[in-house]
Amino acid sequence: MTRIPFTKMHGCGNDYIYVNVAQHPVDTPSRAAVRWSDRHKGIGSDGLVLIDRSPVPEADFSMRIFNADGSEAMMCGNASRCIGKYLYERALSTKTSIRLLTLSGIKTLQLHVTDGTVASVTVDMGEPVLEDERLFVARQDMSKGLFVSMGNPHYVIFTDNTDQVAETGRILEHHPAFPQRCNIEFAQALVGGGIRTRVWERGSGVTQACGTGACATAVAACLTGRAGRESDIVMDGGTLHIEWRESDNHVYMTGPATFVFDGTIETE
């Protein structure tokens, strides 16, 4: 048996287990994600995040993320903010602008530091993609929502019933329109501003928040006239501020990151 040190963190309630694999390798991360994410028999989380040195000079660090079902995700906005806080406050980096390599490309994390503490992080999430036949095949029965890729696929449905997230999200994740499955958002414009959003995450189910999902929702809200270029996305675990910047067409996500606890766990 090998004992692996880990850190539990969350971004707006979207909680993951973080391991610095540069120091403590995880041999079978997919299996570990399933076992460790179990909320009754494990640590409990939405998945497992591996932090490592970057294999390419264009980035400072790299991340891999495995959902609670063991599938590997391409990107997670909430996890990337947590990584920024982890790297800075654990003295692994002195930079306040960190380039993070993900399966969706290199993302830039801008850390907002006050008295040595990372209060929030802004992530350049890149440009949204509205058409990608690898991720979405348009069908007549899928006309109620809007497909937006933020490096991973999202399908945003505006509805007065966001509580259908568990029942309908489970079905739509595996809809034939999505060759690689999909994250599903149920959103509603709020009186006085903001967009209430609930998320079914591909491979994890209902989560407290989803960073890429918040970005996709903000883009969809702008395109449908429900919001402007900036909006607050109100999720179960907290609120994220999203700006779809006209100057470069990139989406910028700002929000908090929080340490929960440190521990060790035995590998199988």
Q: What portion of residues belong to β-strands?
A: 35-45%
Number of helices: 4
Biggest beta-sheet profile: 17 strands, mixed
**What spatial form do the alpha-carbon principal axes imply?**
globular
Got a strand count? 17
State the order of secondary-structure elements, H for helix, E for strand.
Answer: EEHEEEHEEEEEHEEEHEEEE
Helix/sheet category: alpha+beta
Uncertain residue ranges = none
The radius of gyration over CA amounts to 18 Å
Average pLDDT: 96
The termini sit apart by 6 Å
Share of residues in helices: 10-25%
Give keywords:
globular; 17-stranded mixed sheet; 17 strands; alpha+beta
Q: What would your notes on this structure say?
A:
By secondary structure, this protein is an alpha+beta fold. 16% of the residues lie in helices and 41% in strands. The protein is built from four helices and 17 strands. It has helices at residues 29-37, 77-89, 165-173, 211-223; strands at residues 3-11, 14-20, 47-53, 61-67, 72-73, 97-102, 105-114, 117-124, 145-149, 153-158, 183-189, 195-201, 205-207, 230-235, 238-244, 251-255, 258-266. It has a 17-stranded mixed β-sheet that branches. Strand 15 and strand 16 (251-255) form a beta hairpin. The chain is globular, with a radius of gyration of 18 Å. The protein starts with a strand and ends with a strand. The mean pLDDT is 96.
